[in-house]
């Protein structure tokens, strides 16, 4: 299995507790699995699975599921959740999405929910997804778009991230572009046929702006790392801009928070 312990991106994602953020994608994962028309006993891989939200959704549909991620802390949560639900048809592996430790044409279905789009080497993860998917198999992706809210949030994060955090070979092509058909066609090319593509809305809630900002800066690994690696003055500006972003996009009058974000739900068939 690919060694990941020294990967700085792994260390970044293990700096916080991703479970709260991942829970916001419960409905997204269920809808993706429905769109992929999962069947009992199909082999399914969930790439960059995080705390296993999509993996568990696939396992509930009686597929034989493997989730892979380089964050051991997230995988520990995923295993506990699977055990709590008594789902014996799902397993979790630690590994790098850019070098999947599986043989060619292993899986009937490959899924990823807000995961593969943020892998450092986008071309590498696409090559690996295509390699491990069986010919005629399906690839299902849920990808944030460049639009509000999360598209703007990730842009803000990138603006403040110090140079040592920017490890992608193509910084001019951010991961949120996976939320456009044009970028997916560029990445996957003639290797796939699009069978469905739908723009959907995801909603995120908090009791207050403070709760959202504190939760993000205290638990989301990249945000935690940014604050650790920039000076105090810049850190204060980062937090202030996060607060302003939430206030500007809040869909309700308060004191609670409702944020709407667009994402692309995509199903492709491997040629």
Secondary structure layout plus pairing:
Blueprint: H1 8-13, H2 19-23, H3 26-35, E1 43-47, H4 53-60, E2 64-69, H5 72-84, E3 90-94, E4 107-113, H6 122-132, E5 133-144, H7 150-160, H8 181-188, E6 192-206, H9 209-219, H10 221-229, H11 232-249, E7 257-270
Helix pairs in contact: 3-4, 7-11, 9-10, 9-11
Report what the structure shows.
- With 271 residues, this protein is an alpha/beta fold.
- It has one domain (8-204, 261-270): 3-Layer(aba) Sandwich (Rossmann fold), CATH 3.40.50.150.
- It contains 11 helices and 7 strands.
- The chain has helices at residues 8-13, 19-23, 26-35, 53-60, 72-84, 122-132, 150-160, 181-188, 209-219, 221-229, 232-249; strands spanning 43-47, 64-69, 90-94, 107-113, 133-144, 192-206, 257-270.
- Strands 3-2-1-4-5-7-6 form a 7-stranded mixed β-sheet, sandwiched between helices.
- Helix 5 links the parallel strand 2 (64-69) and strand 3.
- The radius of gyration is 18 Å and the shape is globular.
How would you summarize what this structure contains?
The protein is α/β, with parallel strands linked by helices and 271 residues long.
User: Could you tell me the strand content as a percent range?
Assistant: 15-25%
* CATH H-tier superfamily: Vaccinia Virus protein VP39
Counting structural domains, the number is 1
Count of helical regions: 11
In CATH, the topology is named: Rossmann fold
CATH architecture: 3-Layer(aba) Sandwich
Distance between the termini: 27 Å
Shape: globular
CATH C-level: Alpha Beta
Series of H and E elements? HHHEHEHEEHEHHEHHHE
Report strand order across the widest sheet.
3-2-1-4-5-7-6
Estimated structural class: alpha/beta
The biggest beta sheet is recorded as: 7 strands, mixed
In angstroms, what is the radius of gyration?
Answer: 18 Å
Helix content: 40-55%
Tell how many strands the DSSP assignment holds: 7
* Uncertain ranges: none
Mean pLDDT: 93
């Amino acid at each position: 299995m690919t060694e990941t312990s020294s990967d700085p991106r792994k260390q970044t994602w293990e700096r916080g507790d991703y479970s709260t953020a991942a829970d916001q994608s419960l409905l997204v994962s269920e809808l993706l699995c429905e769109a992929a028309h999962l069947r009992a006993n199909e082999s399914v891989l969930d790439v960059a699975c995080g705390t296993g939200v999509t993996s568990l959704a696939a396992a509930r549909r009686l597929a034989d599921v493997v989730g892979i991620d380089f964050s051991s802390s997230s995988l520990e949560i995923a295993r506990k959740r699977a055990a709590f639900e008594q789902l014996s048809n799902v397993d979790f592996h630690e590994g790098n999405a850019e070098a999947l430790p599986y043989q060619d044409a292993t899986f009937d279905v490959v899924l990823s929910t807000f995961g593969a789009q943020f892998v450092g080497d986008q071309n590498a993860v696409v090559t690996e997804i295509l390699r491990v998917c069986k010919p005629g198999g399906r690839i299902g992706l849920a990808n944030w778009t460049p639009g509000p809210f999360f598209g703007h949030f990730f842009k803000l994060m990138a603006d403040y991230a110090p140079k040592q955090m920017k490890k992608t070979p193509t910084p001019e092509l951010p991961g949120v572009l996976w939320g456009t058909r044009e970028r997916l066609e560029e990445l996957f090319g003639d290797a796939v046929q699009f069978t469905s593509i739908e723009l959907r809305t995801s909603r995120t809630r908090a009791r207050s702006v403070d709760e959202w900002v504190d939760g993000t800066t205290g638990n989301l690994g990249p945000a935690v790392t940014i604050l650790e690696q920039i000076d105090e003055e810049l850190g204060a500006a980062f937090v202030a801009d996060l607060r302003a972003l939430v206030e500007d996009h809040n869909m309700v009058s308060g004191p609670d928070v409702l944020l709407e974000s667009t994402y692309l739900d995509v199903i492709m068939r491997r040629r």
